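Quick start: read one record
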Amino acid sequence: MIRIASLLPSTTEIVCALGMEQALVGRSHECDHPTGITGLPVLTAARLDASRSSREIDDAVKDLVRRAVSIYDVDAGLLRELRPDVILTQTQCEVCAVSEADVARAVADWTGTSPQIVSLEPNALEPVWATIGRVAEVLGERERGEHLMAAIRQRVADVAQRAAGSDPPPRVACIEWIDPLMTAGNWVPELVGFAGGINLFSRPGAHSPWLEWDELESQDPDVIVVMPCGFGIERCEKEMAVLHRNKRWNGLRAVREGRVYLTDGNHYFNRPGPRLVDSLEILAEILHPARFPAVHRGVGWVVDQS
């Protein structure tokens, strides 16, 4: 059987969704779904302390980037011992996960047959679905990939059809980082649109931009969905204290009307894999509670109790 080292949570989920979980021989430190893969050897580590505050993490990341130091380490020795045939990584964001350059350095001195490095860079929904097809092709499971992509597209269409027709559609701000403020880009604007909302501040397929307070106040969104990169709901709730103390935040329409929602960004919105469909369903539940039962409430999202 082919041997796979997956250095991204999203690619690990793709491999498992294709029915190839048993082929995985190693994972990243962030791969945690499905739970059956958590016993696999861990091949990566972060060079910063993720328990620090949002502002401190942002400062640390910017410092590493300024000094051209990689944010992640790859255990080259363990990777060699595991002898993967395929290594799955990414070139989309050097801040979010191990990059192709990190992997290339780790295998640079290997002798004999080198593993195939498959580097992915999806920035919008269709490219995300296409990565499923690409991974399936590499693993010799093209037909499974086609079936999985078709099922995902059908789920998206079903949600979009049920969510359509809201008049007026809610204007939505999706917050990807709390301090400093960043709004969610890439595939998130499309998810908001399919969920029947109007996305503010970011464009489909473009990287997530920083958000100025003046701009947030000027647009004064109807709904705010918080989905911090790498944070689950519990950590998100803790970080929200920074905003709760801010008079400008408390003056926003969505805050005054109780329409601020905290999500598990780490497991859903931040991962460009099969569970982006679940992320779409979360948005639909938030934006249209009369049309969508709250299936994901408490696990994927909660109301901010500020």
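Residues 142-163 form the longest helix (22 residues).
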